[in-house]
Design a protein that fits this description.
Elements: H1 17-52, H2 65-81, E1 86-89, E2 92-95, H3 99-117, H4 128-140, H5 143-150, H6 155-160, H7 164-195, H8 199-205, H9 207-225, H10 228-231, H11 235-256, H12 263-287, E3 302-307, E4 312-318, E5 329-333, E6 343-346, E7 355-361, H13 366-377, E8 392-393, E9 395-400, E10 411-417, H14 421-436, E11 459-466, H15 476-491, E12 497-504, H16 539-556, E13 565-566, H17 578-583, H18 585-588, E14 608-611, E15 613-614, H19 616-626, E16 631-637, H20 639-655, E17 667-673
Parallel strand pairs: 10-11, 10-16, 11-12, 12-14, 13-15, 16-17
Antiparallel strand pairs: 1-2, 3-4, 3-8, 4-7, 5-6, 5-9
Helix pairs in contact: 1-3, 1-4, 2-3, 2-20, 3-4, 3-7, 4-7, 5-7, 5-12, 7-9, 8-9, 9-11, 14-15, 19-20
């Protein structure tokens, strides 16, 4: 026996309990270190590309042996890590996680199993007690990692360059791995007690066992209640109960583990307190009017709520007290309308606009209350003259999120479904601002480490899928401004291009999270004879394909005729906007020409308005074939659209043998799926 609460000493040659905890954290720390080094390399590559962009048109193409090796390694890793196996069962579609995260979690579970059973024999009854102790020690030492991954002001994210919202899935899966470790811990103890019919006595009389069962039960509830279908039933309730349950779990765990092992309780509590303190400082600074110039009242932010249609609200905060970068989001709270709730919304505007703008889809809870208030605050919908409300005081928390700087890529493909454009739109506009030389700079950059002005990017391909034509008005002015700015820059001799296409469809698969892409058609990369859908000689066949799909969709769908797949944007297709037709049949009856030619356009004539679904693979492939260096694909939308884009990139990268001697350049993917982090 030793000093640790009567714990048995390990057998000769078996590592001590504390030593195996050190081994566990040596592997975890190494993984975090490798990710941090990769982040540093990406930053160096970013600076190098921007610096050389003034002298080279192909600055995004690696030149040195080191960066060529880096690009080849990155391409190989991406080809297997991006892929996600699509599954279908009785017209229900399931989206498995990409291979990369799956491999990462398998490696993590293997690490746990090795640390628990190293030099111990689970078949030897005499070693079951040792395994019970070891598994308990490995379980409790995972607590700091779980809390670190959950923080909004994330320390791991700071070093690795990954935002908290992209670490949230890892937080959940590490918690599930912790539960797995606890099951091993309980299983071996109960198995040993069962040999002597002693389980009932221990549970009834032993306080240590009772506290352990309480801690395990609360952990089981935490894991089960965090499963996506349950979590999304009521996000506000989930957050409150999750915090309360977490505190209860820590309390039971504190009294269950021996005193020498409570460092693993104090460390995560310290990390959690630090995260809350930093967030509180930012929250006070952003929301107290007295801390800002020209501040009036108590709170610094007032928001107006405007209904855009029957299910979307535009929320606008003028003269915001904070700055942000494209692609970030804020947590917004308006307690008079939605008490005790705070929701993350992507910022759809740039600092240069002088306002924070959100486009929010009304679902349940707070978003539905926001929309109902907006309807009451306006005399009518924006289709007629409305009366703007004076605004309500709101609280903001953020901004959050991190994305690799996109101006280091030669070509960019933005793909968005419905409100996913709130993410891709400011990213595209930010590049255009960089081209114009008018992008705002932030004072937070350290002296000597600021990135040179300019952009490597030459070509932007912007694709937006909306359910109804009326949705195009959400960002009509921004789209028109982009087209005009780019045209002015091209007239001055700049070698840049922006191609914008808006697909109007009644198919929820590409605009909401309710269903998936029909048969995965937009991901198709091959014709029946196996050749790519990109030859000009195939244009007639492609046009016939569009017409055939249109007839099939029209005959099989009562309420919608816009689900056809457009494999060639130059093909002539009849206009289709089912929702508008249902609501405004008389107004739409005169529209009989191609949507690209329709006279009453809501956006610039140089923006393609198409009726149907985009062929995602074709769009990415054509951009990749014209790229002079590494390109990026940014997709935001429902799970089906995100999976489609990822798999298309994998197929195209493998088909073109990216960085394998063919001269084809790499393709980076940044994906944002609908839902809470």
């Amino acid at each position: 026996m030793d000093s640790m609460g009567g714990m048995m000493t390990m057998a000769p040659g078996v590592p001590s309990l504390f030593y195996m905890q050190q081994i566990f954290w040596a592997f975890v720390g190494t993984a975090i270190g490798v990710a941090s080094i990769a982040n540093v390399l990406n930053r160096i590559l970013y600076h190098q590309r921007i610096s050389s962009s003034k002298n080279r048109s192909d600055a995004a193409k690696p030149r040195s042996f080191f960066f060529q090796a880096h690009a080849t390694t990155s391409a190989i890793i991406r080809e297997f890590s991006y892929y996600s196996k699509p599954l279908s069962f009785r017209n229900r579609h399931f989206y498995l996680p990409p291979v990369g995260p799956v491999i990462m979690m398998i490696g993590y579970v293997v690490l746990i199993v090795v640390c628990v059973f190293y030099r111990l024999n689970p078949k030897d009854f005499l070693q079951w007690e040792d395994i019970g102790y070891r598994s308990g020690f490995i379980a409790v030492c995972q607590m700091p990692l779980i809390v670190l991954l959950a923080g909004k002001r994330n320390i791991i994210g700071f070093f690795t360059g990954v935002g908290y919202e992209r670490l949230a899935w890892l937080h959940r899966w590490v918690a599930r791995a912790l539960l797995f470790t606890v099951f091993i811990h309980m299983g071996f103890w109960f198995s040993e007690w069962a040999k002597y019919d002693y389980i009932g006595v221990k549970v009834k009389t032993d306080a240590l066992t009772q506290r352990g069962i309480a801690a395990g039960s609360v952990l089981l509830w935490l894991v089960l209640s965090s499963v996506a279908p349950i979590r999304k039933l009521s996000y506000e309730f989930f957050i409150v109960q999750h915090i309360i349950s977490w505190l209860g779990f820590f309390t039971a765990l504190y009294f269950h583990v021996p005193e020498e092992n409570r460092i693993w309780i104090w460390l995560p509590l310290g990390f959690w307190a630090f995260d809350r303190f930093v967030r509180a400082v930012y929250l006070i600074y952003a929301n107290l009017s007295v801390l800002h110039k020209n501040g009036t009242g108590f709170l610094s932010c007032k928001a107006t709520f405007e209904p855009l249609d029957e299910s979307h609200t535009r929320i606008t905060i003028t003269n915001p007290p904070i700055t942000w970068t494209a692609g970030q989001h804020l947590f917004l709270a308006c307690h008079p309308l939605a008490p005790l709730s705070s929701h993350p919304f992507t910022i759809a505007s740039l600092p240069e606009d002088g306002k924070i703008e959100f486009v929010v889809r009304a679902k349940n809870g707070a978003t539905k209350r926001f929309f109902k208030y907006a309807e009451k605050a306006y005399l009518s919908l924006p289709t007629t003259t409305g009366k703007r409300n004076t605004g309500r005081s709101v609280l903001i928390d953020g901004p959050y999120a991190t994305i690799r700087p996109l101006r280091q890529f030669d070509s960019l493909v933005f793909i968005a479904g419905s409100t996913g454009a709130t993410f891709t739109m400011p990213l595209m506009r930010d590049i255009v601002q960089e081209w114009k030389g008018s992008r705002s700079t932030t004072s937070s950059r350290l002296p000597g480490l600021s990135t040179p002005a300019g952009a490597v990017t030459r070509h932007i391909r912007f694709v937006w899928v909306v359910k109804r034509k009326a949705a195009v008005k959400w960002f009509a002015s921004q789209l028109d401004q982009v087209v005009q700015d780019v045209e002015a820059l091209r007239s001055e001799g700049h070698d840049i291009a922006v191609d914008i296409s808006i697909y109007i469809t009644c198919d929820d698969a590409l605009t909401s999270g309710q269903s998936s892409i029909i048969d995965g058609a937009p991901c198709g990369t091959k014709t029946q004879n196996g050749s790519s859908d990109r030859s000009s000689d195939e244009k007639k066949a492609l046009t016939e394909n569009v017409e055939t799909l249109s007839r099939v969709s029209s005959s099989s769908t009562k309420d919608c005729c816009c689900t056809r797949l457009i494999t060639d944007e130059n093909a002539i297709t009849p206009p289709c906007d089912c929702a508008s037709r249902r609501q405004h049949q008389q107004k739409e009856s005169a529209s009989t020409t191609n949507s690209v030619r329709e006279p009453n356009r809501v956006v610039d004539a140089r923006i393609n308005l198409l009726s149907g679904r985009p062929h995602v693979s074709n769009i990415i492939r054509k951009t990749a074939e014209a790229a002079l260096g590494e390109m990026a694909v940014v997709v935001c939308g429902p799970a089906g659209l995100v999976q489609c884009a990822r798999n298309a990139v994998v197929a195209i990268s493998d088909d073109r043998a990216v960085h394998k001697g063919t001269g084809a350049q790499g393709i980076y993917v940044h994906a944002e799926a609908f839902g809470y982090a």
